[in-house]
From TrEMBL, chains A, B:
SUPFAM superfamilies: lambda repressor-like DNA-binding domains, Periplasmic binding protein-like I. It comes from the Bacteria. Signal peptide: none annotated. This is LacI family transcriptional regulator.
Length: 343, 343
DNA sequence: TTCTCTACTGTGAACGCTCACATACGCAGG
DNA sequence: CCTGCGTATGTGAGCGTTCACAGTAGAGAA
């Protein structure tokens, strides 16, 4: 990393310049910059005018050097990174977090830890205090990064419920179980009784919880659980198609499928079409996520909307609170059933 | 932005600690950290051992304060941000840039400038010198951000050829025109003669260039340009469907379509299906991008692959070179025709 | 020897900011 | 009158680096 100084950019004004122009001291300028307590209205105004006039922008490095915080936070993805391309939710989340942080004037550092090497590098970077906190996307269980960061005392908020022991780590998640309940209840209300399910990976809380909601509602509704109607996918489109094929093979009388993600549901739709089943006439299909893909499929997917915009803003809120000294917190947000054509 | 210091994180070791442990001075440690010139092998080794022992990580803020560079770069998206969700290429690009930078130990700051407010805030942030350079994604013409940053002397690399006057701004782009040529040549080789085109927005270089390639090959091949076979889309799936409908209406004898993006091509495929045309029997369809969507559609899309991984790494290379003092550079990378089922 | 040159090492200053402290100015109460 | 207190302001120190400069030591040349 060798970068020489760039020619043609002139030195930006410092707090000193502002103080001189405003006719006050550095201290007063600094106080105005940091909330304006103990500053007379006259000085306040003079400083603000001087800031406008000089075009002053605070030098965050100098500030960080003394405050010990970086005023920046990391967005860390430890999933294998193909997920980045397959899952549209990731985009919504990343955008939401970036904007929520921007509102606090905090830059977001994007960190991708696909390989072991990257993981080590990033862990060092974070624990060295170069970010004040971390927004973590990592649904798989046993992720050592989360544990390592937690032990190092780095403020941390996970997206989605962590699997491990209820270790004291903050997280924000949609109510997976309740969303699944809503969908399966909806399928029941349509008169369906042979309801299949394509779950997510069962080492992810989303996979487990959505399956649990499915079983709960069926049991409560007096429908017996048939394990032939339960298959596991990995949230990919292909695994959805494969899952549907397996379901049709094991339970040809299936009249509905609850699919734990929209992407998988797209695969399910293709497989059903190939098998000659009409959706929703022969088989109702319910997805999960309300991703953009949901409206693009034919027929449009009935699905469970996860409130991604709220998830991202809550993640940021919880993280900043934790950085401010609050205890870790768990936030679970309600989902919404979105009725379209597939069920 | 108020963040109190977090409890429970202890002070990281400084260059002083390393020097003490290694039995040398700060200066020597600093020299080892910055390339190790004029350091004896013995001192070198002692310092490295001390670094390992103490777990020292350089404090980038202190370094930046004196060097005047931030050793971080910004990834700036000025497109309306729905593009972020619709366009899978964006993901590939973002990931590629992050990783290419990671190899240089440079963090990437994600900046989204959707609104006017955000634009101003981000421009201030950048011109204040808080990043050493900017990777810019902004295909629309007349983007004032690019101009503003250029005037401020901020090293800048655009993704895609900028529209404006050949102003001296670096960019990295795929060879749009040549890619279009390849595809249309391919369609001609299949015996198609009534070849329609759904272009991108004509205020983007991609839109213009791909259309130019299309016209070039037809003219060279002795096929007369029929303006009824030319419609303009906006890279969205919906605009592809609408475009195909308009084409069919104006030229029912169309036997092929070159679509300027895979996403639009998906819309075209749906529209053709709805109109009862078989692909590729009745109408051949050629896309552009080779996005993940290309293999997911039915039939799988014949398309032009843009070398996104190389685009991102070249963007980073060019930007770092420019930060190092090099002149702005333009890089144009070759595309590849990927034959699948749709043509 | 003495002088120069090269390779290496240590030291003080400075980067731009915040924080703790000192100070100054009313204005109340004793 | 002095004391005390709350508000408002200025000042010095120091955050952890790098950089320029001043050395030091040893080798080779005069």
């Amino acid at each position: 990393m060798t970068m020489s100084n760039t020619a043609g950019r002139r030195k930006p004004p410092t707090i000193h310049d502002v103080a001189r122009v405003a006719g006050v001291s550095r201290g007063t300028v600094s106080r105005v910059l940091n909330g304006g307590h103990y500053v007379s209205p006259a000085a306040q105004e003079a400083v603000n005018a001087a800031i406008r006039k000089t075009g002053y922008v605070v030098n965050r490095h100098a500030r960080s050097l003394i405050t010990g915080r970086s005023d920046s936070i990391g967005f860390l993805l430890t999933e294998p990174q193909e997920k980045l391309f397959e899952d549209p939710n990731f985009n919504v989340l990343l955008r939401g977090c970036t904007q929520a942080l921007a509102a606090h004037d905090i830059p977001l550092l994007l960190m991708l830890a696909g390989t072991e090497d990257e993981r080590r590098r990033i862990t060092r970077y974070i624990t060295a205090g170069h970010v004040d906190g971390v927004l973590l996307v990592s649904s798989h269980s046993g992720d050592p990064v989360a544990e390592e960061l937690r032990e190092a005392g780095v403020p941390l908020v996970q997206c989605g419920k962590p699997m491990g022991l209820g270790s004291k780590v903050s997280y924000v998640a949609a109510d997976d179980r309740d969303g699944a309940r809503d969908m399966v209840r909806h399928l029941l209300s349509l008169g369906r009784r042979r309801i299949g399910v394509v779950t997510g990976p069962l080492d992810t809380p989303g996979g487990v919880e959505r399956l649990a909601g499915y079983k709960e509602v069926l049991t409560d509704g007096g429908v017996e659980i048939d394990e032939r109607l339960v298959v596991t996918g990995d949230y990919s489109r292909a695994s959805g198609a494969a899952g549907a094929e397996r379901l049709l093979e094991r339970a040809p009388d299936m009249d509905a499928v609850f699919v734990a993600s929209d992407l998988m549901a797209q695969g399910v739709l293709s497989a059903l079409r190939r098998a000659g089943r009409r959706v929703p006439e022969d088989v109702s299909v319910g997805g999960f996520d309300d991703s953009p893909a949901a409206t693009e499929s034919a027929p449009a997917l009935t699905t469970i909307r996860q409130p991604w915009d709220r998830i991202s803003s809550e993640m940021v809120r919880v993280l900043l609170a934790q950085i401010g000294g609050d205890d870790p917190a768990a936030v679970i947000l309600p989902t919404v059933l979105v009725r379209r054509d597939s069920a």
